[in-house]
Design brief:
It is built from 24 helices and no strands. With about 475 residues, it is mainly alpha-helical. The relative contact order is 0.14.
């Protein structure tokens, strides 16, 4: 079998899995569970040989562990197939959600963003906050694709190279913040589907959590940012002194040269004034707002799971936007890129998430959801607080050693009854999403850290290490936020 034929078969199985999941959600026809589970098993078997390193070993562990637990519980065939399709929701999201990012890459928007960065991000602190906020916004729509986009925007400025460590932190944390609120991420799809919640019910709390993430990030690196700003101000002052001396020397030159210098200075002043007027591209801002509003509106008007609404919006809305902008060639190019580049690049995540779903489904059969509350009941703390601490610590600690947050989030979301630990479903959702978001920057296995490692020519551990303190402070902030809100 040729490589091209194998790639076509892989894509066909992934698309078939997504199509059957959508059909099953619309019809609720019982026998489709067997088809969906069978396609999930087939996708894992086809894609498993392509995995390497920790992703391969984790997937094998989840599959083997799930099989052992299923056999030990003597689970029937229906439960095997149901467990296998536990994370079919996420595969469906991977197939459709990236289409929302196609209009973001329109050449006019990218050029306007470059001008915005060149003229607005003057201080180190502004550049740091702007980079994190931009990644936060763009990541919410184009997922990990936001990292190279914002990276190339940031490094338009020559001095950005001297701030690579801080800017890597900003990119990493900005993406982690997007995980908390974006409806186009696997985290949101998993949590809302498992807990039967609407995204609109969570959004007000998640926006607050995202703002806290930005403030915590700024506070953690504030001393370093302030030192960089002071150094820049000192260098600028020295440059001004040299410029003043140069101007005094030029006073002895001819009147013609002085006149030309004044004209040049006026021209430069006009260019700077024009630069100061550069703002965030209005068309892009409108698209991002409309895309979010469309999901919120559809969720209120149509009684369907959020994943289906997101998929419907991802197919229709970007196409209509590009059509209105006269940019259908850009849409076709983006669609082709998604099918031939983006989707194959997500095969590692698809395999890992399906394997983790099967493992978590097998754990659910063991009554694991009742074990944790009973153990936490021995701790002399309110069970809501002890469970919250347990969740944050387990997700963050296992991410630190390379375990993807999907594992614990899937296990907890599908096994724990919020009422048993005396919390509401919304509290539970914010806890899981916040824990996933703060864990992503410190995980050596995260897609973002691996991508940044290539861009900055550093190891994943070098990139993760500066975020340890951020994750610790953010964990405390998440606990306080949950108790207050």
């Amino acid at each position: 079998m040729t490589v091209g034929t194998k790639a076509v078969i892989d894509r066909a199985v992934i698309f078939a899995l997504a199509a059957v999941f959508i059909l099953q959600q619309f019809t609720q026809w019982g026998p489709l569970v067997y088809v969906l589970g069978g396609l999930s098993f087939m996708a894992v078997l086809l894609l498993l040989p392509k995995l390497k390193g920790i992703a391969l070993w984790l997937s094998l562990f989840f599959i083997a562990g799930g099989v052992v637990l299923m056999l030990a519980q003597q689970a029937d065939a229906a439960y095997w197939f149901k467990a296998a399709s536990m994370n079919a929701t996420l595969v469906t999201l991977f197939v459709f959600a990236p289409l929302f990012g196609i209009p973001v890459r329109l050449p006019d928007y990218v050029a306007a963003l470059k001008r915005f960065y060149e003229t607005r991000m003057r201080s180190t602190t502004a550049l740091f906050i702007g980079t994190q906020l931009m990644t936060h916004i763009m990541g919410g729509f184009i997922n990990v694709g936001s990292i190279p986009v914002v990276y190339h925007l940031v490094f338009v400025k020559p001095r950005s190279g001297r701030l690579s460590g801080l800017l890597a932190n900003a990119l990493n944390r900005g993406f982690g913040g997007a995980i908390c609120w974006s409806p186009y991420f696997a985290a949101m799809a998993l949590v809302t589907s498992a807990l039967k919640l609407n995204w609109s019910a969570l959004l007000p709390y998640l926006i607050g959590l995202s703002l806290i993430s930005l403030l915590v990030s700024l506070a953690v690196d504030f001393k370093q940012l302030r030192a960089k700003d002071e150094a820049s101000e000192l260098a600028a002052a020295q440059t001004d002194e040299l410029g003043q001396e140069a101007m005094e020397v030029t006073e002895v030159t001819t009147v013609t040269r002085s006149t030309k210098a004044i004209e040049n200075q006026r021209g430069q002043g006009m260019e700077k004034e024009h630069g100061r007027r550069a703002s965030f591209p209005m068309g892009l801002a409108i698209y991002l707002l409309c895309a979010t509003a469309a999901i919120l509106l559809l969720e209120q008007l149509i009684e369907l799971p959020m994943v289906l609404i997101t998929c419907m919006g991802a197919v229709v809305f970007p196409l209509l936007w590009c059509l209105a902008k006269g940019a259908l060639p850009t849409f076709r190019q983006g669609l082709t890129n998604h099918l031939t580049v983006t989707l194959p690049a997500l095969q590692k995540e698809i395999t890992l998430f399906l394997a983790a779903g099967f493992f978590s489904g097998s754990i659910s059969a063991t009554g694991f959801g009742h074990v944790i509350p009973s153990l936490l009941g021995h701790i002399p703390l309110p069970i809501a607080l002890s469970f919250s601490i347990f969740t944050i610590v387990m997700i963050a600690a296992t991410s630190l050693i390379g375990l993807h947050p999907i594992v614990w989030v899937t296990i907890l979301a599908t096994s724990i009854d919020p009422d048993v630990v005396q919390i509401s479903p919304i509290y539970f959702a914010v806890l899981l999403l916040g824990s996933w978001g703060l864990s992503n920057p410190i995980s050596p296995a995260s897609a973002v850290n691996n991508l940044l490692a290539g861009l900055f020519n550093k190891s994943v551990f070098e990139l993760a290490r500066p975020n340890y303190r951020f994750a610790a402070v953010m964990g405390l902030a998440l606990l306080l936020y949950l108790m207050m809100v």
